[in-house]
Amino acid sequence: MKIVVCIKQVPGTTDVEVDPKTGVLKRDGVDSKLNPYDLYALETAMRIKHGHGATVQAITMGPPQAAQVLREAYMMGVDEAVLLTDRKFAGADVLATAYALSQGIRQSGMPDLIICGKMTTDGDTAQVGPEIAEFLDLPHVANVLRILEVGAEAITVEMDMAATVEIAKVQYPCLITVEKGICQPRLPSFRLKLATRDRAVAQLTLADLADADAGHYGLNGSPTQVKRIFPPEVNADHEMWTGTGPDLAARLGERLQQLKFV
Fold it and tell me: Is residue 247, in this structure, part of any structural domain at all?
């Protein structure tokens, strides 16, 4: 079995700037880290690897420094790593990002199972995983809470459907996105850091992909663009009221009407 885990390098701080022309984050010179949700995807892959036998490959898209998170994935037990990097990938929205990753996965060899974290902390869209599956024409399940069975032909999972929890059996090849509560991620291993320090990280550029049309990637391939990003206003104003329950309820009702909340 071959498993691919999609991971991403995200800003390690909320103090980031936005390019006023493109509406994308300025990542140069900003402290970065592995997307926290991807730790659960990596751990899920590791447990399948050790319990059922598998080769695990991590893939990410980003500038050359994004190879850092692939090195971290090596320290968690990943066998192979692929970096999609090209200036023409810059500024991609979720659709262009998913398309580029789907092309990279095809180029590096289709797996039996693709695992993604629920979402990234710099986007919070939770769309890239399912969109990768659509581009690859794969069955997929989002919001996976538990892996119930890893079979020879299919994987059985428990998924969160907001109002219900449902069980699905999905034939390989397929894609799943996992929730934070699925497992406890392991810490990177110093022993594996030493063992993998010379292990190569494969790099793919636009020219390496089957679809080398630059119009399908980055800003050119993004049908959506962010108009403005701004931090929420901080308002620490507050009042303390005392009185009986009925008096406080009446006062609260009056205030909500004044603020036109009701």
Answer: no
**Residue 201 belongs to domain spanning:** 2-216
Question: Is the predicted pLDDT of residue 13 greater than 80, yes or no?
Answer: no
Binning the chain into helix, strand and coil, the percentages to the nearest 5 are 30, 25, 45
Report the CATH number that the domain containing residue 119 is assigned in CATH: 3.40.50.620
Question: Mapping DSSP to helix (H, G, I), strand (E, B) and coil, where does residue 36 land?
Answer: helix
| Strands (DSSP E) found in 80-173 | 80-84, 113-117, 140-150, 154-160, 165-171
Cα four-point dihedral sign 175, 181, 182, 186: positive
Burial class for 217, CB neighbours closer than 10 Å (0-12, 13-18, 19+)? buried
What pLDDT, on a 0 to 100 scale, did the predictor assign at position 168?
96
Q: Report the alpha-carbon distance of residue 146 to residue 86 in Å, rounded.
A: 36
Element (H, E) at 95: helix 94-108
148 — pLDDT class (breaks 50, 70, 90): very high
Residue pair 41/57 in contact by the 8 Å Cβ criterion = no
223 belongs to a structural domain: no
Domains in the chain, number: 1
Residue 232: inside a domain: no
84-131 pLDDT tens trace: 999 999 989 999 999 999 999 999 999 999 999 999 988 888 999 999
* Average pLDDT score over residue span 21-37: 70
Residue 232, pLDDT above cutoff 70: yes
